[in-house]
Amino acid sequence: MFRILLLLSLFLSTSHASDFCVADLKGVKSPAGYPCKSHVTVDDFVFSGFRAGNTSNVFKAALTPAFVDEFPGVNGLGFSAARLDLDIGGIIPMHSHPGGSELLIMVSGQITAGFVASDNSVFLKTLSKGDLMIFPQGLLHFQLNAGNTKATAIFAYSSTNPGAQLLDLALFGNNLDSTLVQKSTFLDAAQVKKLKGAFGGSY
Questions:
Q1: What number is the average pLDDT over the span 17-45?
Q2: Signal sequence: where (predicted)?
Q3: Is 102 annotated as a binding residue?
Q4: Confidence check: pLDDT of 107 > 70
Q5: In the prediction, which pLDDT does 76 show?
Q6: What average pLDDT is seen over the chain?
Q7: pLDDT of residue 100
Q8: What is the predicted pLDDT for the residue at 16?
Q9: 10 Å Cβ neighbour count for 43?
Q10: Cα-flanking dihedrals φ and ψ of residue 23, to 5°?
Q11: Stated pTM of the model
């Protein structure tokens, strides 16, 4: 009887272990995520940072992520979120997420959004409050404010860390020889120099 009670107490004390794995951000991150935190509280499952971001930048846009590094509770659960704020004229340029698909949920304003499929077909739509749009994993996509007021949307991702590669930064925010950039983009030297200057690349 004692053995049964002992086994039962051990089971009850560890029964939550397979329910979740809150990230220990001090641990080593792997493709599977972070190791599990030993002491967990309710605050690990709450993210209070979804506030309007600062849109005073060249894109007139702000992305507030709730990925595993900001929200340890999503570790191992296969999803995460972000908030998008677009000022009038704001844009999130062409980019892709190698680690997950994206679901856009419109909150306010109007956003024209689209993606380019692998056969180069374009899927484009102007969205309003209550609309949702999917951007499949790895495909180039963008969002721009199509209205005359600020726009807000929430993103849900099929990964705790979807990653992102911005096309403009990939092309012009690096130290790739400008002659190679010219040849691969069909832009002239002056255009490449201007864009590298804008995105922090070396000419």
A1: 91
A2: 1-17
A3: yes
A4: yes
A5: 92
A6: 91
A7: 96
A8: 52
A9: 11
A10: -65, 130
A11: 0.85
Helix 189-199 and helix 178-185, axial crossing angle in degrees, nearest 10: 110
pLDDT in tens, 180-199: 999 998 999 999 899 898 88
Evaluated on CA atoms 68, 74, 76, 78, the torsion sign reads: negative
Residue 95, annotated ligand binder?
Answer: yes
Contacts of residue 81, defined as CB under 8 A and 6 or more positions apart, other chains included, come to 47, 65, 66, 71, 154, 155, 156, 157
Strand partners, 61: 86
Instruction: Find where tokens 């600020």 sit.
Output: 150
Distance CA 195, CA 168 (A): 8
Neighbours of 73 (CB within 10 A): 21
Q: Which domains does the chain carry?
A: 42-163 (2.60.120.10), 170-199 (no CATH)
